[in-house]
TrEMBL record:
InterPro entries: TBL, TBL_C
Start and end residues of each Trichome birefringence-like C-terminal domain: 1-256
Signal sequence residues: none
Name this protein carries in UniProt: Trichome birefringence-like C-terminal domain-containing protein
GO molecular function, one term: O-acetyltransferase activity
Organism: Linum tenue
């Protein structure tokens, strides 16, 4: 990857993977000469000894949030204006899902636009699907995949809700606070997130090569891998992941694909469109 630009695009789970990769690179090259930059939406670290830049572009929904004439934030399901920057990268790793069901003060928009219709709200799974289709059309129409390798990170599971404890044989347990071992067994069809199925269907429809990092089943087993109450912020965090930990495995899979693809050459790439991490 010498001389290349790698960018993660997404929410705080993308930041989780970005920070994991930086830690892994620092462990491999602890004395490398680096430069750090931080702007409103972009962070980057450049390892000058290798000419590699690792970047994070914060985008909770991938599609645009635009302000109208009276200052309202409008989530536009049909617009991806940041794509002009993204397509300049050599590697793109996209992710979105965590913010789609947030309401109240944590909701990042006031209205939602679907074509010419602007409404106060709509079915969130429908909105997520439409936004992902917009992103998929952008990949097909705008990204030169001979230059840019495109990845999409699947749903990262959380381990706190009414059903959590029951899923690992402890009914009534609602979070991961005292968990020290992985779940025995894998992700069953009864608990496969609908969002994962939507991602698989839409990414499978893209004409250009996109690697789907299907990390859901593997990560689901790791109820012991979250910061829980040890996050330095107070409260319970069973959504994000400890570093070192689960995101390191995501990055091992990512780096393996990049190395393998580089050996074969972009024109003769024969890797599967989906990378089934749980296998």
């Amino acid at each position: 990857m010498k001389g290349k630009k790698i960018m993660f695009v997404g929410d705080s789970l993308s930041m989780n993977q970005y920070e994991s990769l930086l830690c892994m690179l620092h462990a491999a090259a602890p004395n490398s000469n680096i430069t750090r930059l931080a702007r409103e939406w972009i962070r980057s670290v450049t390892l000058w000894d290798y000419g590699v830049s690792i970047m994070l572009f914060t985008s909770h929904y991938l599609v645009d949030i635009q302000q109208d004439k009276i200052g309202r934030r409008v989530l536009n399901l049909g617009s991806v204006s940041s794509g002009n920057l993204w397509k300049q990268m050599d590697v793109l790793i996209f992710n979105t899902w965590l913010w789609w069901y947030r309401k109240g003060p944590k909701q990042g928009w006031n209205y939602i636009r679907d074509g010419k219709i602007i409404s106060k709200d709509m079915n969130r799974m429908t909105a997520f699907t439409k936004a992902l289709r917009t992103w998929a059309k952008w990949v097909d129409s705008s990204v030169d995949t001979r230059k840019t390798s495109v990845f999409f990170q699947g749903v990262s599971p959380a381990h706190y809700n009414v059903r959590s404890g029951a899923a690992w044989g402890r009914p009534g347990v609602r979070d991961c606070s005292n968990e020290t071992k992985p779940i025995a067994g894998g992700l069953t069809q009864s608990v496969v997130p609908l969002a994962l199925k939507v991602q698989q269907d839409i990414i499978g429809s893209i004409r250009k090569p996109v690697h789907f990092l299907n990390i859901t089943a593997m990560s689901y087993m790791r109820k012991d891998g979250h910061p829980a109450s040890h996050n330095g912020l107070g409260g319970m965090d069973c959504t994000h992941w400890c570093v070192a930990g689960v995101p390191d495995t995501w990055n091992h899979i990512l780096s393996t694909i990049l190395i393998h693809s580089g050996k074969r050459g972009k024109e003769s790439k024969k890797l599967p469109r989906q990378t089934l991490a749980h296998k």
